[in-house]
Amino acid sequence: MEKEEPIEGAIKVKLLFFGPLAEKLNQRSIELSLLYGTTINQIIERFDLKSMVSDGLVVALDGDIGVDFDTEVHDSSEIAFLPPVSGG
Questions:
Q1: Contacts for 1-7 with beta carbons within 8 Å, 24 or more apart?
Q2: Whole-model pTM?
Q3: Of 2, 3, 25, 75, which one has the greatest count of Cβ atoms within 10 A?
Q4: Residue 2: is its pLDDT beyond 60?
């Protein structure tokens, strides 16, 4: 079996989804190849999560919770999408 040649300028990241997000996407994690310079906001748009942002979606990048959505992701980054917490 031949090895796939890496795409120049591509990075590989891991996305983690929790709670209703995991249910909506029917998976808890995805490994994804993206172009260098991709931002968290572009990932949010790609997975149609804008409505969850207005409801309080929080993103953690490599364990750093609450990062700015304009932050660029890097090769081997782990991006966790945390749904808003509700309770009484």
A1: 7/33
A2: 0.84
A3: 25
A4: no
Q: What is the pLDDT of residues 8-67, one digit of tens each?
A: 679 999 999 999 889 988 999 999 999 999 999 999 999 999 988 888 999 999 999 999
Establish if 14 belongs to a structural domain.
Answer: yes
Report, as an integer, the average pLDDT of 63-78. Answer: 96
Task: Locate all alpha helices (DSSP H) within the chain, ordered by sequence.
Answer: 20-25, 40-46, 50-54
How would you class 3 by CB atoms within 10 Å of its CB: exposed for 0-12, middle for 13-18, buried for 19 or more? exposed
* CATH code for the domain in which residue 28 is found: 3.10.20.30
Residue 62 lies in a domain: yes
Is residue 4 included in any domain, yes or no?
no
Question: Which single residue is written with the structure tokens 């999560």?
Answer: 49
Residue 47 within any structural domain of the chain: yes
- Could you give the number of structural domains in the chain? 1
Q: Which two tokens stand for residue 24?
A: 């909506």
